[in-house]
């Protein structure tokens, strides 16, 4: 399976690309916004393409063509305004779904946000971010794609433990970005995660076992 990683230069994206590159089950193509980022991946032996989520659907489709799955782990970033969040986290995500369908990619993994599916639990300070994630997820659910939605808690830069909690509803929690990337890898070809969404935090269960228990 060849995996197209959107947001490959982000912190989760970089970790996921490395895991895919080291895997004997998957190959990877990284999508980034700048040629300098693409060149950095190429120097590390990773196939990389330049495309912009704020650009045309056809551009994203061309970049993804020939892949078997898409992982959307892009984000506008913490220092941008609500307008950029809507353009990237919502409209950019929807464009990538349209692109997937246009080139015959059916498998799609979305990195969302903890409790994005429950409006009553949204953080008021970044409500625009939850709105973007919520509606991107809902459109994905209605897209006909074979999706998995992962909703991680507060993201940490500390080393991963390889242990998680994953369920349709978790109240709150945090999780290392490394463990999010490992979980993405674990669900890619796992049928019990197809067409389902999960909250994800640190926990006591090894990732592979937690996925098998879903």
TrEMBL record:
NAD(P)-binding domain: residues covered: 7-190
Pfam family, one: NAD_binding_10
InterPro entries assigned: NAD(P)-bd_dom, NAD(P)-bd_dom_sf
Domain of life: Bacteria
CDD domains xref list: SDR_a5
The protein, known as: Uncharacterized conserved protein YbjT, contains NAD(P)-binding and DUF2867 domains
Highest classification ranks of the organism: Bacteria, Bacillati, Bacillota, Bacilli, Bacillales
């Amino acid at each position: 399976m060849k995996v197209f990683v959107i947001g490959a230069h982000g912190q989760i994206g970089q970790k996921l690309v490395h895991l895919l590159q080291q895997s004997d089950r998957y190959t990877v193509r990284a999508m980034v916004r700048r040629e300098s980022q693409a060149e950095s991946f190429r120097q590390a032996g990773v196939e990389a393409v330049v495309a912009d989520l704020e650009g045309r659907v056809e551009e994203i489709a061309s970049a993804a063509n020939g892949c078997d799955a898409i992982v959307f782990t892009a984000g506008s970033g913490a220092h941008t305004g609500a307008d950029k969040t809507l353009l990237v986290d919502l409209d950019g995500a929807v464009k990538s779904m349209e692109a997937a369908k246009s080139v015959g990619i059916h498998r799609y993994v979305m990195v969302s946000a903890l409790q994005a599916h429950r409006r009553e639990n949204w953080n008021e300070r970044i409500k625009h971010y939850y709105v973007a994630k919520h509606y991107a997820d809902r459109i994905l659910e209605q897209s006909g794609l074979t999706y998995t939605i992962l909703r991680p808690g507060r993201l940490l830069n500390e080393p991963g433990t390889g242990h998680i909690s994953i369920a349709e509803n978790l109240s709150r929690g945090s999780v290392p970005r490394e463990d999010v990337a490992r979980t993405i890898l674990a669900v890619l070809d796992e049928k019990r995660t197809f067409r389902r969404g999960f909250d994800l935090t640190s926990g006591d269960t090894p990732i592979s076992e937690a996925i098998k228990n879903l």
